[in-house]
Amino acid sequence: MLQSLSLILKRSFWVLTALVLVVFSVSNRSVVDIGFYPFDTLVALPVYLVLFAGIFLGLLVAASVSSYFRLRGFAQRRKAERRATELEKQVTEMSEDAHTRRAEEGHKRLEAGTGPR
Fold first, then answer.
1. Residue 117 and residue 114: Cα distance in Å, rounded?
2. b/e for 67-104, b at 16 or more Cβ within 10 A?
3. pLDDT band at 11; cut points 50, 70, 90
């Protein structure tokens, strides 16, 4: 029940958004001249097209920046995980070495007849 309600709300949102965009586009059909500074040209475009192009470019830039930071964070996390694995391996090796050294010292003491401390 809850999933069907959620689906209905999502579809309603997109239908309403499409309706608003269509009404906006029909209401703003007037043409504006767009100039590009270094070039000596003018392009005549409808207002709604200029607005939609600006929104699209803004979304594209935001998605690019977001993807860059997400990928950078992913790379940093993988590097940290590799470093943690390496350090865990070193700790294990050091504890095994320390255990071996203590055992060897105990055997030497037993052979020498001094016994445990």
1. 8
2. eeeeeeeeeeeeeeeeeeeeeeeeeeeeeeeeeeeeee
3. very high
